Amino acid sequence: MAIGERIRFFRNLRGMTQKYLGQVVGFPEKTADIRMAQYESGSRTPKAELTENLASALGVSPLALSVPDIDSYNGLMHTLFALEDLYGFRIGKLDDELCIRLDKGMGTNYLTMFDMFSAWQEQAEKLKNGEITKEEYDHWRYNYPKFNVLNSDKETANE
Length: 159
Hints:
The protein is mostly helical. It has 2 domains: about 5-65, 434 Repressor (Amino-terminal Domain), CATH 1.10.260.40; about 110-159, no CATH class. The protein has helices at about 5-15, 20-25, 30-40, 50-60, 60-65, 75-85, 110-130, 135-140, 150-159; strands spanning about 90-95, 95-100. Strands 1-2 form a two-stranded antiparallel ribbon. β1 and β2 (about 95-100) form a beta hairpin. α1 (about 5-15) packs across α3 (about 30-40), α2 (about 20-25) packs across α3 (about 30-40) and α7 (about 110-130) runs antiparallel to α8 (about 135-140).
């Protein structure tokens, strides 16, 4: 999710208008909504200082607004939080192990993600059982969804 989409998400979550948020971060009243619309649409990208101010006004970490950096643990956590917001990922425990699960209440998102995760699990299981090599597994992952068996079966069934 791009920074503009994250700004919009948190602004709506807080019940703020574009004009109000723009004014809180210091834009003049006449242009506050226009400037915020530009950032939310992605036609402008906020600099680091503005991102800090927006995060403060929205009551979130700047990491929650930025495009996540999965090369750090904090960036990875904010990526997972974004996935929770967008796709209904949920954290839980299963047999005393932490796990991430899909929320069935997310409707179409749940069904789509379930199909995708099922395809992933199937390939991972084949690797674990020695039915495919690590190279074949990586080829599947790095070319997804091109070689997704579940996806191609559905496309064939729909033709």
